[in-house]
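Supplementary Methods. Inverse-folding protocol.

Structures were first reduced to a C-alpha cell string of length 277. This string, shown here, constituted the complete conditioning input.
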C-alpha cells in the first residue's frame, strides 16, 4: 500500500498529486491560479512575482512599476558592499551559493541594505504623504535606542548621511518611476525630495526610492525587505562570476594599491636584537 504524503497547509500554494504517485505533482495552484496550465502561458515573470507576494494579479500599472523597479536595483555595481562581498567570494574560489550568501549577508543591513528599506517604508507609511508627519517619523526612528537583533539606526532610513548631492541615477530612477504612479508615494517623494533631504540631513538613497515604490505596490515593510534582497542578487551573481575569471590581480582598485605600495617610501626593518629578541 502506497503511503500518503503529509498535508501541507499554506494559503499561497496548493498541489494536486498524480493518480499513480501521491508524491508527484499533477497541478500546482498559486493563490488559486494554475501555474503550469495558465500562468506559464499568459503571464510574465514580474506578474507572477507580484502574484506570489500579494496573492492577486497586478494591474498593468503595477506590473510595469515592478518590472522597472527590478531593473533599477538589479545591479548596484562594484561600489556596493554586497556586490563586493560576492566578488570577494568569486575571486576567492567560493561556491556559487557562498558568493550569493555573502551578498545577502552584507546587503541585509541598515546602511544601503534591506533592513534600511524596512525602516524607510515604515517612515513613508506613517507620513501618509505629509511632510510634518514624515519629520516626526524620522525623529522617532533616530530616538529609538532599543537593541534587539539590529542596532539602533544612526541615520534616517532611505537617505545617505554622507551624500553631497543626490546621485544622478537616483534622480533619474525616481523621476521615471514617479511618472508611472503620478498620485502615489513616488510622486510625492519626487516633489518633496529637496525638503526631505534637508530634514534627513542626507541625500536620497536608492533604499528610499525602493521603499516608496513598494508602498505604491501595496507591499508591507517585511515584504519590501525580502523583495529588495531577492532582486539585487542578479548583479551580485554576474560580478562574482566575472571576478572568478579575472582573478585577484584584476580586482577593482588592487592595481592602484600595488602602485601605491611600489612608490611608498621604504623604511629599514628594526634590528630585533636591540630589543633582546
Amino acid at each position: 500500500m502506497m503511503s500518503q504524503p503529509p498535508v501541507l497547509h499554506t494559503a499561497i500554494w496548493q498541489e494536486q498529486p498524480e493518480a499513480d504517485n501521491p508524491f508527484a505533482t499533477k497541478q500546482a495552484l498559486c493563490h488559486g491560479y494554475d501555474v503550469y496550465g495558465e500562468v506559464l502561458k499568459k503571464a510574465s515573470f514580474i506578474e507572477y512575482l507580484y502574484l506570489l507576494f500579494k496573492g492577486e494579479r497586478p494591474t498593468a500599472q503595477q506590473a510595469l512599476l515592478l518590472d522597472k523597479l527590478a531593473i533599477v536595483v538589479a545591479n548596484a555595481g562594484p561600489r556596493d558592499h554586497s556586490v563586493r562581498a560576492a566578488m570577494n567570494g568569486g575571486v576567492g574560489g567560493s561556491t556559487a551559493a557562498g558568493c550569493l550568501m555573502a551578498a545577502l549577508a552584507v546587503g541585509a543591513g541598515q546602511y544601503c541594505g534591506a533592513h534600511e528599506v524596512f525602516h524607510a517604508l515604515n517612515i513613508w507609511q506613517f507620513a501618509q504623504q505629509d511632510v510634518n508627519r514624515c519629520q516626526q517619523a524620522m525623529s522617532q526612528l533616530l530616538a529609538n535606542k532599543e537593541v534587539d537583533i539590529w542596532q539602533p539606526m544612526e541615520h534616517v532610513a532611505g537617505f545617505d548621511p554622507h551624500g553631497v548631492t543626490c546621485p544622478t541615477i537616483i534622480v533619474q530612477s525616481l523621476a521615471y518611476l514617479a511618472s508611472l504612479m503620478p498620485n502615489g508615494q513616488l510622486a510625492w517623494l519626487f516633489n518633496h525630495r529637496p525638503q526631505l533631504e534637508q530634514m534627513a540631513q542626507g541625500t536620497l538613497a536608492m533604499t528610499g526610492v525602493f521603499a516608496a515604490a513598494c508602498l505604491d505596490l501595496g507591499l508591507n515593510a517585511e515584504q519590501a525587505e525580502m523583495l529588495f534582497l531577492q532582486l539585487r542578487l542578479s548583479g551580485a551573481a554576474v560580478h562574482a562570476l566575472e571576478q572568478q575569471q579575472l582573478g585577484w590581480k584584476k580586482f577593482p582598485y588592487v592595481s592602484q594599491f600595488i602602485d601605491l605600495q611600489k612608490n611608498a617610501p621604504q623604511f629599514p626593518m628594526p634590528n630585533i636584537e636591540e630589543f633582546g629578541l
